[in-house]
Amino acid sequence: MPSPQVFIASTLLFAIVAVVGVGAVNAWIDPFMQYRVPSYQPRFTNGFARHIIAGLARNLEYDSVVVGSSYAMNFHNSDFDREFGGRTVSFAMPGMFISEGRKVLTYAASLKPLKHIFFGLDFFAFVESNNHYQFPDYLYDARWTNDGPYLLSLDTLKRSLYIAL
Length: 165
Prior knowledge:
The chain is mostly helical. The chain has helices at residues 4-29, 49-59, 77-84, 98-111, 148-151, 154-164, and strands at residues 64-67, 88-90, 116-119.
């Protein structure tokens, strides 16, 4: 029978290896495109739009943005490009609140100069008392040192394993 010290040391070692392994898999696959545009065809998940948009803002080429709730998700970027010129990307997300739209626009404008901003507003964007979404503020900055919740998340690991399989 192993001694308590050996049991504690092996348990700690296993926990450290598991945490480092989860972080390494999530950084390597990067399912929400926080560090690079993937070489594979990405699959977007509406439930994680708040996470994915930060990576899109950082990694895509654009000079115009569409921001809004799920209503704005019905617009085609090519229509904006044709009518107004430029390269448009959509940062619309289901259930977007006005404060989240401000955060997304502030972040996008800090990364690239914007020619056009198309902001879709609806009544519910101002009713933040019904907010059921957690906004990942830690992804909307230039610091990588606070990305632990992304890299060490089991939800991110599930998406990474889904992509890997």
